[in-house]
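Support case: dephospho coenzyme A complex. Customer-provided input:
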Amino acid sequence: MVLKSLNDLRTIVAGGPVKKLVVAAAQDQHSMGAVVKAWKDKVIEPILVGDKDSILNISGENNYDITGVSIVHEPDIEMATQLAVKMVNNHQGDILMKGKVGTSTLLKCILNKEWGLRTGKLLSHFALFEVDTYPKVIAVTDVAMNISPNLQDKIAIINNSVGCLMKLGYQMPKVAVLGAVEMVNENMEATLDAALLSKMNQRDQIRNCIIDGPLAFDNAVSLESAKHKGIRSEVAGDTDLLLMPDIEVGNVLYKSLVFFAKARVAAVILGARVPIVLTSRSDSEQAKFDSILLSAAASR
Ligand code: COD
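Agent response - structure generated as follows:
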């Protein structure tokens, strides 16, 4: 099975166990709107950690009925983030969500050696995009956490992502390792890594997926383009997961899809003790809601 739309996430989590979601610095309107919606849909039970007055003001101004929701009062953003991470560390939450806190502050708390959420695995960012010009949902990784992953990191990033896709119902997702070109060029490290990853996949060193690369973006997502260039590939034109060479390429693709192509997006950090909803502050309430659904599916 493959996801045709991000609406399919609702079907995947429907009727599943209600997950405890801890929000770090919850005094953020879009985050609260998404949390309240997911709570009403019985996907999550929220615990809002943050400035209680601001949380109550936001809920009053936007008619969010949060009667019965637990609020843990901590007005300082960094302290609230630490507290939220520690609560999840103490098994008080199944999912962590970023509220009104900067990404790097949250990531540093998550990586804290004493009370963070490390598991010994590499943490990586995983995003799903629904865009009108592609016939199915496409996953993209890593556009927000690992700055310049080496080969070993890329293997871990693929494994995290494939594990998540399998929880969503995929079998043998097709992974395109992106480069600027589809030929191996010894001066372009991304193409060398791509060739190695493909061979490791052929030799069963990376399992549960079909990897091909290097592929340039056009032949990864367009069969016509791939045919035009004479590329024979099981993945070209039918990619489920795009592996980015680094955060710059990934982040620009993410923002281009959202701002130019009006893509719908859901995103999560994988590899930690629990899934982490980490959307950017400019993301819509819909993106935050879809990310909560994705995290609920990933926490199964
Ligand atoms: N997974 C597991 N452990 C990690 C990871 C990871 N992805 N990254 C770092 N660690 C561990 C290291 O092994 C080390 O033990 C410790 O954490 C600190 O490592 P540093 O010194 O490399 O990490 P930091 O604290 O300087 O930076 C880690 C960040 C995740 C904050 C950094 O990689 C970063 O800023 N990433 C980009 C975040 C960002 O700005 N995204 C926004 C895009 S919208």
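Residues 160 and 270 are 6 Å apart (CA to CA).

Case will auto-close in a few days if no follow-up is received.
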